[in-house]
Design brief:
alpha+beta; Arc Repressor Mutant, subunit A; Endonuclease, Chain A; seven-stranded mixed sheet; 11 helices; 9 strands
Length: about 260
């Protein structure tokens, strides 16, 4: 019950309003005293709460033998009303926000921090939808699977390029990174990069390990990280044409470069 109360609060009801409506749904029709007793709302507040809900049209009030009886707006009607209000508010807010948002590029290119796995994934989906010419990615399996449907949609309208790890048969335009001792033992350091049209980019560590990422429209960041992806693709393609000795040599050189 607490779960549905919290969900109703997210729709704009306070706790007492949610409890009162739910009590009436259970009781069907009841006096203020019965609603107070069933819901746990103090008797000193129950008339105020029920009258407020009545003014909103969510509770029906009848005078029967000089006593007030309350009944809930039928659940189907209540849900339709909530959905209609949400849709109206969403469309209004969307229009207002888009009018406020600056569409022109600002001279101060920025790097912003994003928090939360859902927000990061939503940002990635938004960028993929915005892509007009190309999307360049470097993804490990978890991010690739989360965004597969969005990547497919992007590949159908513009170029999709990049490299993926832990995916045997990636979408057209993407290279599969060879399996090495380095990739097998990389642990939590599975960073992702998503760049669109050379204008916007989001990058960060695996969202399953750390729900933080970075957004930038800074051309220097974008140039460096897109070149990082190309370097990874180039080395991957060259090694595939060579033999195991090249792989061992690369592993040794990497270890020496990053050692203290």
């Amino acid at each position: 019950m607490q779960d549905i109360i919290q969900k109703m609060q997210s729709l704009g009801f306070n706790q007492y309003e949610a409890k009162a409506y739910l009590a009436l749904v259970r009781l069907g029709s009841a006096s203020a005293y019965q609603v107070s007793k069933d819901s746990g709302i103090p008797r000193a507040r129950i008339y105020e709460i029920l009258n407020g809900l009545s003014k909103q049209g969510l509770v029906l009030k009848e005078e029967i033998n000089e006593a007030a009886q309350y009944s809930p707006l039928p659940v189907d009607v209540f849900l339709e009303s909530m959905q209609s209000n949400w849709r109206t508010n969403f469309e209004s807010i969307s229009e207002s926000l888009k009018e406020l948002e600056k569409t022109e590029l600002t001279p101060d290119n920025r790097v912003a921090t994003l928090k939360g796995a859902d927000h990061i994934l939503s940002f990635c989906r938004t960028l993929l939808k915005k892509a007009e010419q190309k999307a360049v990615i470097s993804f490990w399996g978890d991010m690739y699977e989360e965004l597969l449907a969005d990547l497919q949609a992007t590949s159908e309208k513009c170029g999709l390029k990049g490299i993926v790890f832990e995916i045997e048969q990636p979408l057209q335009g993407l290279d599969h990174h060879r399996i090495t001792s380095y990739t097998e033992n990389i642990g939590h350091q599975k960073w992702f990069i998503l760049s669109i049209d050379g204008k916007e980019m989001i990058y960060g560590p695996s969202i399953s390990e750390r729900e933080t990422a970075f957004y930038t429209d800074d051309p220097v960041h974008i140039y460096l990280l897109e070149n990082y992806i190309w370097h990874d693709i180039l080395v991957n393609r060259l090694v595939k044409k060579q033999n195991d000795e090249v792989e061992k040599w690369i592993a040794t050189e990497r270890e020496q470069f990053f050692s203290m």
